[in-house]
Structures are given as structure tokens and as C-alpha cells.
Design a protein that fits this description.
Helix 7 packs parallel to helix 8. By secondary structure, this protein is of the alpha/beta class. An eight-stranded mixed sheet has the order 3-2-4-1-5-6-7-8, sandwiched between helices. The protein contains 22 helices and eight strands. It is flat and about 75 Å long.
């Protein structure tokens, strides 16, 4: 998980402050020291850490406490605000040209995932704006670079401009003419990289920039390289005046030093983050949401957006109706499992819900690919009648299912029991007018209204019971 180690350390440093009615200077000094060490171990730039800690201490000691917060909570708020500011405060989008096409020039060193990121960006634009991007293959040196881009283009059904030769500037200019003739909304130029910043690389990129005047020069950097990523960003920005950064491999970076340093050092925004290998694994970077997640306060907005992207509202309504009528069966269960799987690992989704990251009952909740495969094997070993009517599953049928799935009978019994418990829980929730939780279509839906009722005593009682069911269901 991104920032996992940093998140644990900072939360631990602030834990002793949140419950205090009075926070002394010694308390703030102690917390500041622990946060400073956490940031340095996360490979955050030293100067950035120094300025950050200085600001925290000044504000914590000199600012009046807001009426709704105790002194400890006020310190947490200050840390949250300063983390957000460090990463850029506002979400920044790509620059748009006055007329199509908008030109995006992808730059970076070799090995950062630049070509794959170009494909991810094209998919993102296609999905969010219904755009028609076109690739220009400008990396004529790396073996198979053009083949890789062509494969991505075929997968996304997007055009790619390529031609023989090594005159990259002329290739890009010809490709841009083609995009204008075809009326493509965006042109994404995949350029060559090097193992390190050198004069030849920078001259070629500068020539491309001078020839086509791109609206965006996007630097792709590997977040796992820590402060080295910041140094690379400084070098490219000095030569090309980049407009923004995309951080790749953030899902594998438990430290987070690059994300916390780049904006503070270069002044250039982080536009997107890559958090997986699939072309769908690209997300807009929201500094405020990332700060909230680092401090363990959840990220409901991102969770809702993921649900809106990956859930079909009509299907969600059908599932909600099935829950109310108690006709939710194993076919529906598999469909919902697939929907949740699209959104990402369950343990990561739960951490986006405020309070869940710190909940010891959900500490080890996870849904691995192996567990999902076993669950599907059990369901697919059932007859169509058994899937539609789980009450038919008597001991003799369960033994046959276990044999067909190649799994122990105890595991089959456990899965069926968990399904029944979950179905009963969902039916109770549906009767309580909380059906939006099944599909999570958005805040202007039953889920939004259910979220508004979370502060009621009745919901809190249900929530405690539900957490027990969830833990048993996913164990």
C-alpha cells in the first residue's frame, strides 16, 4: 500500500495527542520529532521535512484552538493541512488547447513505465471525457518500443502514428498533421528515454518541444526511487519546463517520499498516479484526499468515485430489490464479487472508509485472488438450481460440490454459512431503507441518504453487528 509505513508512523506520533484536553510544548516537540523521523525514513527531501516540522510547531504553539476541536485534534488538523499543502493543495488537471488536438508530450527516463503510462492516460481520457486520443511513436531507439505502443493501441482501439527512420522531430510533426486531419481530441507523444539525464536526450526533447509547442509536458517518474525521483524532476524541469508529473508504481511504494517531495521542490503538480499494471490503473492525484489517507481518516470521495465508475446503477437497483425480497442467490453473489474485485483489494477499499483503517476488527480483512478463485470454484460446482436456491444445499449436495471444486468439505460449509449470514445481514439493511450500500451509486442516491443517517444511534448499533458479520464473511 502507498504510504503504509509513513502512515503508521505519523498516526502513532499523533495518537497520544488526540485525547488530551491540554497539549504542552513538550508534547508537541515529542510528536514533531517522531513525525520528522517518519518523513526522513520515507525518503522525503531533507529541506522539505525541515520546513514542514518548523511550520507544524509554529502553528501548533501559536494558533488558537477552534471551538469544535480539543487541542490534540487541533494539532492533527494542522498536520493534515500542511501535508495537503506540501503535496500541492489543489487537484490540477491537464492543460487544454483552445482547439483540438491538445498535445501531451510524455518524457522521462527508461524503466519508469512511460509507454504504459501513455496508454493509461489515453484510456483515462477516453473514459472520463469520451475523447479520441491518438499516439505518436516517438521512441525510435528502444527495441520493441513501437511494438509495445501498437499493442496498447490495439487493446484500446486507438490509432498510432509511426513511420520508419530516426528523425523524431519530423515524425512528430507528420503525426500531428494526421491527428488534425482525423480530428483527434488529444495527441500523446511517446518519447525516448535514457538511463540518466544526458545532453543528447534533452536536446532531442527540446527540439520536439520547439517544433510542436505541446500544451502539456508530462514527466513520468518511478515513485519507488524516492529522493532520486525529485532529482530527476528537477533536471527535466530545468531543461524543459514541465507542466506536471505522473508518479508510477505508487501501489508498491510504502514510503511515499517522492509524492511528498516533488511539488515542494519543483513547484510542479502531481497530475496522476499509477497504482497497478493494468491500463485502468491510473487515478487523478488529490492532495487533500491523500493527506487524509496518510492520517488514517479515510477517503470517502475516492471510494464513491470508484463505485460510480465500476458499478452499474441498474444492476445495483436489481440487487437491492433482490435483497428486500430475500431472493439474493449465488449467481448475484458472484456478480457482486466481480464488481468489488474491479474496485481493488478489499482491505484497501475499507481503509478509504473513515475509521476503518484503525478498526482492529478489520485489521486482517482481505480478499485475495486465491480466496476469490476458491469461492468461484465452489459456486461453479453447484447446479443451476442450487445456485438459484441455496436452501437446497443439504449435506450430500455439499459433499458433491466439495469434490467438484477440489476443496475440503469444511471450506465449502464455511463459505455457504458466510453467504447465508451475509444475505441475512443485507436483507435487514435493505428493509431499513439502506439498499444503496449494495450498489454504492453515489451520494445523491440511497447510499448518500444512508450515509447521512450514520450518526443516528440506531445505525451505530447495526454497524457494530455488521462489522462482526463482515469479519466472519471475509476471514
Amino acid at each position: 500500500m502507498a504510504f503504509e509505513n509513513l502512515s503508521k508512523r505519523i498516526q502513532k506520533a499523533l495518537k497520544n495527542l488526540t485525547g488530551k484536553g491540554r497539549v504542552s510544548e513538550a508534547d508537541i516537540d515529542q510528536a514533531s520529532r517522531e513525525i520528522r523521523l517518519a518523513l526522513l525514513e520515507a525518503d522525503v527531501n531533507f529541506k522539505v521535512v525541515k520546513d514542514f516540522i518548523k511550520t507544524i510547531k509554529q502553528k501548533a504553539l501559536g494558533q488558537e484552538v477552534q471551538g469544535s476541536l480539543n487541542p490534540g485534534q487541533q494539532v492533527v488538523k494542522i498536520v493534515n493541512d500542511e501535508l495537503t499543502k506540501m503535496m500541492g493543495s489543489d487537484t490540477v488537471s491537464l492543460n487544454k488547447a483552445d482547439h483540438i488536438p491538445t498535445i501531451i508530450m510524455m518524457v522521462g527516463l527508461q524503466g519508469t513505465g512511460k509507454t504504459t503510462t501513455a496508454g493509461k492516460l489515453a484510456y483515462h481520457l477516453q473514459k472520463t471525457e469520451n475523447a479520441r486520443p491518438m499516439f505518436i511513436a516517438g521512441d525510435v531507439y528502444r527495441p520493441a518500443a513501437i511494438d509495445q505502443l501498437q499493442q496498447i493501441g490495439r487493446e484500446l482501439n486507438m490509432p498510432i502514428y509511426t513511420e520508419p527512420g530516426q528523425d523524431v522531430v519530423q515524425i512528430v510533426k507528420n503525426g500531428l498533421k494526421q491527428a488534425e486531419a482525423d480530428k483527434n481530441d488529444y495527441v500523446i507523444i511517446d518519447t525516448a528515454g535514457r538511463l540518466e539525464i544526458d545532453e543528447q536526450l534533452m536536446q532531442e526533447l527540446a527540439d520536439i518541444k520547439a517544433a510542436v509547442h505541446p500544451d502539456n509536458i508530462v514527466l513520468v517518474v518511478d515513485s519507488m526511487t524516492g529522493q532520486a525521483a525529485t532529482t530527476v524532476a528537477e533536471g527535466f524541469d530545468k531543461q524543459l519546463d514541465i507542466t506536471g508529473v505522473i508518479l508510477t508504481k505508487l501501489d508498491g511504494d510504502t514510503r511515499g517520499g517522492a509524492a511528498l517531495s516533488i511539488r515542494a521542490v519543483t513547484g510542479k503538480p502531481i497530475l496522476f498516479t499509477g497504482q497497478g499494471e493494468k491500463l485502468t490503473d491510473l487515478a487523478a492525484f488529490h492532495p487533500d484526499r491523500m493527506a487524509s489517507r496518510i492520517l488514517g481518516m479515510g477517503d470517502m470521495l475516492t471510494l464513491i468515485e470508484k463505485a460510480q465508475q465500476d458499478y452499474d446503477e441498474q444492476e445495483a437497483a436489481k440487487v437491492a430489490e433482490k435483497m428486500r425480497e430475500n431472493t439474493f442467490d449465488f449467481n448475484d453473489f458472484i456478480d457482486q464479487l466481480d464488481q468489488v474485485q474491479k474496485m481493488g483489494p478489499l482491505d484497501q477499499l475499507l481503509k478509504m472508509v473513515p475509521g476503518m483503517a484503525k478498526n482492529p476488527q478489520l485489521k486482517n480483512v482481505q480478499l485475495s485472488d486465491k480466496q476469490i478463485a476458491h469461492t468461484k470454484a465452489i459456486v461453479y460446482s453447484m447446479t443451476p438450481e442450487e445456485r438459484e436456491n441455496p436452501d437446497l444445499l443439504k449435506p450430500s449436495r455439499r459433499r458433491r460440490i466439495a469434490y467438484g471444486a477440489g476443496l475440503p468439505l469444511a471450506q465449502v460449509n464455511r463459505m455457504i454459512k458466510q453467504f447465508q449470514q451475509a444475505r441475512d445481514m443485507m436483507q435487514k439493511m435493505a428493509k431499513g431503507n439502506m439498499s444503496g450500500l449494495a450498489g454504492m451509486p453515489g451520494m445523491d442516491s440511497p447510499m448518500g441518504r444512508a450515509a447521512a443517517r450514520r450518526m443516528s444511534k440506531k445505525f451505530k448499533k447495526r454497524k457494530r453487528k455488521r462489522l462482526k458479520h463482515v469479519k466472519r464473511f471475509q476471514s
